[in-house]
Amino acid sequence: MKKFMDSHVHLKNRNEEVLNIEGLLKEMDDADIEKVFLMPANSTIEENERMLEQVKGHEERFIPFAFINPYHEDCVERFTDYVLNRCVKGLKLHPVCDAFPADRAYMLDPLLEICDRYRLHCIIHCTSDAPNSSPLQFEKTAKRWPNVTFQMAHMGGCWLSNDAIKVCKRNSNIYLDGSTVSLSAVRRAVSSCPDKFLMGTDIPFYHFEMEKLKMHYATDDPEVFHKITYKNMEDLITERRW
Ligand SMILES: [Zn+2]
């Protein structure tokens, strides 16, 4: 039996090393990873299509997320098609790479309305290295859609992790993923929000074993360790009724 679930994985080569679906499956098997939230490398149509083609037949292990740029004119139609016909369970947004504020309602609401209608999960990149993607901006968006679950990827980065933790504590629909985040910030998040913290490795930038080790150092409590590496994500999947 696999013992871990990972909430933040991209289908993307690691430098020169090819990480297609077979390569990812091997890394998952080697690290006892049962299931992951899978995203393309970026928001281009080509990368979304590449991921959705490769993931076919592997839906037991990979939960696919569409990586959408809200500036694309056909983004709502394309996202709806991915959800209805391509097994997509969630939305990935990157306010830094795709250059939009995380709280720009008129751009994001048409996409989030689809998330609301189909009980989807929304992952938004949130770091402190850009002025358009802070935890407080993330919160404004999440508050408008209380029936959508939101995952704050990188939980505010280097400097805004305390804001991220506050925002998570006061909003039942917000989860934190500690991918690329310092151990000290992760320890604070795990002790403050043990039921809403999700392990995330950000493959291909790191390895599963590195993140598992970080989770071991994040808590001494075996029950909390099981929550942050498996049960919280399993409960989220159950709550979303996927
Ligand atoms: Zn990522």
Automatic annotation (TrEMBL):
Highest rank taxon of the organism: Bacteria
Coiled coil start-end: none
The name this protein goes by in its record: TIM-barrel fold metal-dependent hydrolase
This protein's UniProt keywords: Hydrolase, Lyase
Sequence ranges assigned to domain Amidohydrolase-related in this UniProt record: 41-232
Xref: InterPro entries: ACMSD, Amidohydro-rel, Metal_Hydrolase
One MF term in the entry's GO annotations: hydrolase activity
One Pfam family matching this protein: Amidohydro_2
PANTHER family per record: 2-AMINO-3-CARBOXYLMUCONATE-6-SEMIALDEHYDE DECARBOXYLASE (PTHR21240), ISO-OROTATE DECARBOXYLASE (EUROFUNG) (PTHR21240:SF28)
